[in-house]
Design a protein that fits this description.
With 314 residues, the chain is α/β, with parallel strands linked by helices. It is built from 11 helices and 11 strands. Helix content is 33%, strand content 16%.
């Protein structure tokens, strides 16, 4: 079975996937930056392992042998699901494989915002470690004693919430529905925004959640609160967020995702000193890859055997 894996791979991962020949898989690595190589490889692909670069209708149409698009991760908003359906291509994701990594980076972004990690790092490197602006003092804080509002309560919040609780935070959550097995208070969107010192987004981007944190919602947030987004960039109205950060209505933001990715150098968010950013790598750990490969290989086996696929979403 021919697998096309579109990802810029380090040597350890290249060696790891080369070893999958023992599973009767021929895995061809293709750089996400090399469109020509990707397009030339599609006609021979039985399976596409997809991470971030969009899988378009045109790409699916160029792959007559394609039977499965396997998302290495959870969100499938970068896959043309209707085109996949028209061509009889199954789409699967792998919930849970990257949850621990995402939960840990979420916590890191919260702490970096509260402790102005980036600003202190720059000041220290510039030899100004003991002469930073005194007004920074009042903006430093702790997780303990703060209210954290989790938007969505899937796999990542379920790992994150107990950690935050142990650190002394109060947890509230909102989303499409409440969960009977979750004992944290379920509140409306408006109540969460008004009460939360930290708002952390953990929902997929779709027609109902795009622009979830728009200008009106930001205006309803608790003054001086923090926004963390490790889900999808389109959940936030970026211009409205920039305005709120510049005015101080929102004290800080920790962002791993952006409306346009990769985010261009001219993004106004990058000019703000009260923002901590990373390039959509919350999921990216070696452990995530090991867990993901187990699921991806198993789905290839199931495809070959004609068995039901794991986590099929389309």
């Amino acid at each position: 079975m021919n697998v096309l894996f579109r990802f810029d791979s380090a040597s350890w991962l290249a060696e790891r996937v080369a070893g999958l020949s023992a599973e009767s898989l021929s895995v061809r690595l293709c750089s996400e930056q090399d469109d020509s190589d990707y397009l030339s490889a599609l006609p021979e692909a039985d399976v596409l392992w997809h991470i971030l670069r969009p899988v378009t209708a045109d790409a699916i149409g160029r792959a007559p042998r394609l039977k499965l698009i396997q998302k290495i991760g959870v969100g499938v908003n970068t896959i043309d699901l209707e085109a996949a359906k028209r061509h009889g291509v199954a789409v699967c994701n792998m919930p849970g494989t990257n949850s621990r990594a995402v939960a840990e980076l979420t916590l890191q972004l919260m702490l970096a915002c509260l402790r102005r990690t980036i600003s202190f790092d720059a000041a220290t490197r510039a030899g100004q470690g003991w002469s930073w602006p005194l007004e920074w003092q009042g903006g430093l804080g702790e997780i303990g004693g703060r209210t954290v509002g989790l938007v969505g309560f899937g796999a990542v919040p379920r790992l994150l919430a107990p950690i935050l609780t142990v650190m002394g935070a109060d947890i509230i959550y909102t989303g499409r529905r409440s969960y009977p097995d979750v004992h944290f208070p379920y509140v409306t969107k408006q109540e969460l925004l008004a009460r939360a010192d930290i708002v952390s987004l953990h929902v997929p981007q779709d027609g109902t959640t795009a622009g979830w944190l728009d200008a009106a919602s930001i205006a309803g947030m608790k003054p001086g609160s923090i926004v963390v987004n490790v889900a999808r960039g389109g959940l936030i109205d970026e211009p409205a967020l920039v305005t709120a950060l510049a005015s101080g209505h929102i004290a800080a933001a920790g962002l791993d995702v952006f409306a346009t990715e990769p985010a261009p150098a001219g993004n106004p968010i990058f000019a703000l000193p009260n923002v901590v950013v990373s390039p959509h790598i919350a999921w990216l750990t070696r452990e995530t890859f090991e867990r993901s490969l187990v699921v991806a290989v198993e789905n290839c086996r199931r495809l070959r055997a004609g068995e039901a696929l794991l986590h099929q979403v389309a």
